[in-house]
User: What shape does this take?
Amino acid sequence: MADAVLENSEKQNWTTVLYSLTLFGNGIEKYVNDKIDALHGTLNNQLHFITKHCVRSCSIYKPELSNWCNTCLQWKTAILNHHKNRNVITKQKFNWTCMDSAKWPLDPREVQKCFYPDWCFTARKIPNLTDVSVLIGCMINCTEFTKNIDHIRHIRNEVSHNFTVSDEERKRYCQTLLNVLKTPDVILYPEAQDAVKSITVLQQTCLKDIIEERLIKEQTLLELKARLFEQKPLIELTKQYVKEIVSITILVMAICLAVWFATEEYGGKFAFLIILLKYSA
Ligand SMILES: [Zn+2]
Assistant: This one.
């Protein structure tokens, strides 16, 4: 199967672009967080006159905005002033229950949730902040980010709907990711520099050669192989096996105990215990 996949260049390219997007997310995450941290500092300065803390997490327990405390309302207004689509949000029924407004004055990550893309609020569980789609959404929605990031969202949408990517598209998509990572305020971050190195290799060399010649870090290579061959990463497989072994052991012990207690005579119990110890030794 592995050889067959390696002969399919379009599948290789698709995997390469998908993985490059993950690397892009790793490369840009700290930059995004730092920008939101700076915004959080600005908001705290703006709202320094608010001395009361929210004691009831209004966004979670008070669905109607009219019932929110003054602290949460002031923070909501101040945050939305930095949302590029605030007009749409105020017209629509925004799902505030996905975040805890009581934490807004203390936790920049809770403020960041206000800039998540729309789909996050209808997803079954809150997506991981490090998910590249979430990071891109934050950059698109928050006024702190002035870079045009729409073309990255376009790449992400393309690879989530089309499972084949041509050589030319692979090179172009990777270049788009590199261009953002190489902008002066992003490339300062070591994480961005690492991402640039790996994506450059993925852009210039086909995946088959990368795997055969081991051109990128071992861990990256393992993750790429897992994606390419649809294998679970080793750590997940180990966890799965340990879980299965524990379940089987518990089941066997339960059966043994049930048989032992079902044995009516003391002598029978004793004999069974001897057998059990003999076989477990
Ligand atoms: Zn409140």
Summary: The pocket of zinc ion is lined by residues 54, 56, 58, 68-69, 71-72, 101-102 (CB under 6 Å). The chain has two domains: 2-231, 236-280. The CA atoms of residues 208 and 240 lie 29 Å apart.
